[in-house]
C-alpha cells in the first residue's frame, strides 16, 4: 500500500463562462494573460483532432512512470472535469493509454492533459476524448503510487489548482486561474474582435504596418541598402 493525498474538490466554474472559453483560441487566452499561463510543450496527441475543450481542472500529481493515483482520479472525477496529470514531464514511461481514455470518456470527463508520456496513440486519436500530452512511449506505467489528487500541481511550467479553467485546442493548453477567469475571458473577447478587424484590413489591403519599422533602429550593412 502507498499513499494518495486527497484534497477537497475545487470550485466549479460558471458553465456560461466555459462556453465563452470554448469560443476563444488558446492563443487569444494566453495573450489575455500577458502572454503567460500556457502549459508549454503539451499538445494534442499525434493524429488527434478535436474541437476546443474547456473545463475545471482535476489535478493529479503522480510519481513519474506510475499511474495508480491517475486511475484513482478517473474514478473520483466528475463529468466535465479536465484531468491534469503532473507526471514530472517524464517521457521514459507512459502514465495513460487507450483503456483509461475510454474509461474517462465513459465517465464524462472533458479532456486529459498529461505533463508526461502516454501510449496507444492511434486509439487515443480515434477516441472522442481530447488527450494532450508531452510525449509518447510504448513502455507502460507501474501501479504502485504514491501521489496526490486535487492539490496544486505544475504542468508545462504553469501552476494548476483544482477548479482552474483549462482550455485546450490544436495549439496546446492554457490554464486560466479561477479567480481571473471572468476578467481574462472578457479581455480575450476584446482581443478576438481586434483580430477580426485586422483580418478585414488585410483582406482590404489596408493593414497599417507603420508600427513595425517604427519599433526598429535599422543599421545599414554593406553598399546596397534594402528599403
Ligand atoms: O496500462 C495502463 O495503465 C495504461 C494503458 O496502457 C491504458 O490505459 O490503456
Ligand atoms: Mg493500453
UniProtKB/TrEMBL annotation:
Domain of life assignment: Bacteria
Name of this protein: Putative 4-hydroxy-4-methyl-2-oxoglutarate aldolase
Function, in words: Catalyzes the aldol cleavage of 4-hydroxy-4-methyl-2-oxoglutarate (HMG) into 2 molecules of pyruvate. Also contains a secondary oxaloacetate (OAA) decarboxylase activity due to the common pyruvate enolate transition state formed following C-C bond cleavage in the retro-aldol and decarboxylation reactions.
Cofactors, names only: a divalent metal cation; Mg(2+)
Classification via Pfam families: RraA-like
Binding residues annotated for substrate, in chain numbering: 97-100, 119
Annotated organism of origin: Geodermatophilus africanus
Catalytic activity: 4-hydroxy-4-methyl-2-oxoglutarate = 2 pyruvate; oxaloacetate + H(+) = pyruvate + CO2
Quaternary state and interactors: Homotrimer.
Record NCBIfam families: PRK06201.1
Keyword Metal-binding: yes
Its EC number(s): 4.1.1.112, 4.1.3.17
Residues noted as binding Mg(2+) in the record, renumbered to the chain: 120
Molecular function terms from GO: 4-hydroxy-4-methyl-2-oxoglutarate aldolase activity; metal ion binding; oxaloacetate decarboxylase activity
Entry keywords, A to Z: Magnesium, Metal-binding
Family according to the record: Belongs to the class II aldolase/RraA-like family.
